[in-house]
Design brief:
single chain, alpha+beta, Methyltransferase, Cobalt-precorrin-4 Transmethylase, Domain 2, 2 domains, 4-stranded mixed beta sheet, 3-stranded antiparallel beta sheet, 11 strands
Length: about 230
C-alpha cells in the first residue's frame, strides 16, 4: 500500500476494499471512539500518531474500523467497519488538538468525516498526513506526559512511523539528531568560507591596481586548494 493507494480507495468510495488490509507505514485504523480527549494521555496519543506519519513518509489514519492481530504478520488487520457519526468525529476538535500539540504545523493536513452508509448517518473519520518536506522534519510533540501530568514548555517528544507502529525516539536517537549541526561537512565549509573572506581582504589590500579580479580570485582559490589544514 501507499498514501496514494489508500486515498484512492477513499476518493472512489470503495469502502469494502478496506476490509482485509494490514496496517503499515501509511495506514492506521481505529475504532469509532479511539480517543478520550478529556484526558491529557489521549491528546498526547493523537499527537504521537500524527507526528509519526509526518516524520516518516506520510499516511492516513482512519477512525471507524475494527482490527485484529494478523496471524501471518506482525501487524493489525482491518476486520470490519465500526462506523461513527459525524457528531462523534469532531473534525475541528481533532484539528485544534493537533495544532496545539504538534510543532511545526503539518503542511496540507486534512481532517474530515466521510459518509459510508446509504443514509449518510455513519461513516469514517479521516486524517490525511501528506509526505512532508525533509527540511521541515522532525515534527515534535509539544506536550509530553510524566506520570499522568502534562508538562508544558519543558520537554518534547518525537515519534516516527515504523512499519505499523508509532515509535517514540529514544534519548540516544534524539541526541543523535541534535548533533547534526556538528557534522564535519558543515564545519569544513564554514572554515573554507572564513578563509575566503580573510584572503579576499588580504589580496584586496596587497594586489596591484593593474591586477584583475579574476587574477585575484584564481590565486586565492589555488592557495585554498594547497592548504592542508582543512
Amino acid at each position: 500500500m501507499s498514501f496514494e493507494s489508500i486515498k484512492a480507495i477513499l476518493d472512489t468510495r470503495q469502502f469494502a476494499a478496506l476490509i482485509g488490509l494490514d496496517e503499515d507505514t501509511w495506514l492506521e485504523a481505529k475504532g469509532k471512539n479511539p480517543y478520550d480527549f478529556t484526558t491529557p494521555a489521549a491528546r498526547y496519543e493523537l499527537a504521537k500518531d500524527i507526528t509519526a506519519f509526518a516524520n516518516a513518509e506520510g499516511g492516513i489514519l482512519l477512525v471507524g474500523l475494527t482490527t485484529a492481530p494478523a496471524a501471518d504478520a506482525k501487524t493489525e488487520r482491518i476486520t470490519a467497519h465500526d462506523l461513527c457519526s459525524q457528531a462523534d468525529f469532531d473534525a475541528p476538535q481533532y484539528l485544534g488538538i493537533i495544532k496545539g500539540h504538534v510543532y511545526p504545523g503539518i503542511r496540507d493536513l486534512k481532517i474530515y468525516w466521510l459518509p459510508v452508509n446509504d443514509e449518510a448517518t455513519h461513516g469514517l473519520g479521516v486524517i490525511e498526513v501528506p509526505p512532508q518536506s525533509p527540511n521541515q522534519k522532525y515534527f515534535l510533540i509539544a506536550r509530553v506526559l510524566d506520570s499522568g501530568a502534562e508538562l508544558k514548555q519543558i520537554v518534547f517528544g518525537i515519534a516516527k512511523r515504523n512499519d505499523s507502529s508509532n515509535d517514540p525516539f529514544t534519548v540516544a536517537e534524539l541526541y543523535k539528531y541534535t548533533q547534526s549541526g556538528k557534522h564535519p561537512v558543515p564545519q569544513t565549509l564554514a572554515r573554507v568560507e572564513a578563509k575566503l573572506d580573510a584572503l579576499i581582504e588580504v589580496q584586496t589590500r596587497a594586489a596591484a591596481p593593474t591586477r584583475t579580479p579574476d587574477e585575484v580570485y584564481d590565486e586565492r582559490t589555488a592557495r585554498i586548494l594547497d592548504d592542508d589544514s582543512l
